[in-house]
Specification:
Blueprint: E1 6-9, H1 23-35, E2 41-43, H2 55-69, E3 75-78, H3 84-97, E4 101-105, H4 114-126, E5 132-136, H5 138-141, H6 147-156, E6 160-165, H7 170-177, E7 182-184, H8 190-195, E8 200-203, H9 210-221, H10 225-242, H11 249-257, H12 274-289
Parallel strand pairs: 1-8, 2-3, 3-4, 4-5, 5-6, 6-7, 7-8
Helix pairs in contact: 1-2, 2-3, 3-4, 4-6, 9-10, 10-12, 11-12
């Protein structure tokens, strides 16, 4: 049973120009994240554009990430689908592939009642033996898992081991924390979340500068408050531009600007506009000045949406 804690990067899914998955950059990213000292890898989430992947592609991503991690860190794999039936199918596949923790996002589009949400999670948990992490993301899921519903699920399913909360509501996360370990989503909450006894963060921004987040987590755990505050300030700066264009396009733009191109997002998400690119470029230069981005190699450092790459 993996310990639910620390810095868990929510990995992007690299694509080629024809929108097929590009495994070479993905393998390099996985190795880079692990070398930086992260505590796990989260695949198939919102940053990974799971909503744009076919079922077979979602299976491939789960298998690939588990194989490439090779037991070095736990792999968290999102298996959530709109229907309970499809979620169970993907959960059983991920369990058979050896994914360490199965992540189940609240069914999206359908605005379910708490009773319906509870029964959905209970059925999924009972269909597998692997640890299950609930995933609450109201802005994208359309529903919010209530703390009392989570407690009811945990009371009936011992393999529900935690929750990823991307609501941005710290008090909701604290309420969840009375029942299970909590990984928060918005990165601007990291210090506050850990101060309230929560377990860590699932962070999309760690794709760009993983050592920054590892250093921040360690500074908090070691009581180095001044260091932690300075690093949280850098993280907050990143939070200021990551949503300047349709998510997760700014993540991929940033990766290109750091010399680690991972392709564009799948359509209908379009190119990053010039003003948004200027914001992320300024942010990357600040991180480079702080030593959290290596000097560019000359490969892939132009915008993924520039005419030269169109």
């Amino acid at each position: 049973m993996p310990t639910i804690h620390g810095i868990i990067p929510a990995m992007i899914t690299p694509f080629r120009e024809d929108e097929r998955i590009d495994f070479g950059p993905w393998q390099r990213l996985i190795d880079e994240l692990i070398r930086a000292g992260v505590d796990g890898l989260f695949c198939g989430g919102s940053s990974g554009e799971f909503f744009a992947l076919e079922m077979e592609e979602r299976q491939v991503t789960l298998r690939f990430c588990r194989q490439q991690a090779a037991g070095r860190v736990p792999v968290y794999g999102n298996v959530g689908c709109i229907t309970t039936r499809d979620t169970i199918k993907l959960a059983r596949f991920a369990e058979a592939e050896g994914v360490d923790v199965l992540v189940v996002i609240t069914p999206y589009y359908a605005q379910l009642s708490q009773d319906e949400l509870g029964e959905h999670f209970i059925e999924v948990c009972r269909s597998v033996r692997a640890p299950v992490l609930a995933y609450n993301f109201p802005p994208h899921g359309g529903t919010q898992l209530a703390p009392e519903t989570l407690a009811r699920i945990v009371g009936r399913c011992e393999n529900l081991v935690g929750i990823k909360d991307s609501s941005g509501n710290l008090q909701l996360g604290v309420a969840y924390g009375a029942t299970v370990p909590v990984l928060v989503g918005p990165e601007n909450l990291i210090i506050d979340a850990l101060d309230h006894g929560l377990a860590g963060t699932v962070t999309a921004l760690a794709n760009i500068a993983p050592r920054l987040f590892v250093d921040l987590y360690r500074a908090i755990r070691e009581g180095r408050r001044d260091d932690a505050a300075r690093l949280q300030g850098l993280v907050n700066g990143m939070c200021g531009w990551v949503l300047a264009h349709t998510f997760p396009s700014m993540l991929k733009e940033a990766m290109a600007l750091t010399g680690r191109p991972v392709g564009s997002c799948r359509k209908p998400i379009g190119p990053v506009p010039p003003e948004a690119r200027a914001r992320v470029a300024a942010g990357i230069e600040q991180l480079r000045a702080e030593g959290y981005i290596d000097e560019p190699t000359g490969r892939g450092t132009e915008s993924i949406s520039s005419p030269a790459r169109a």
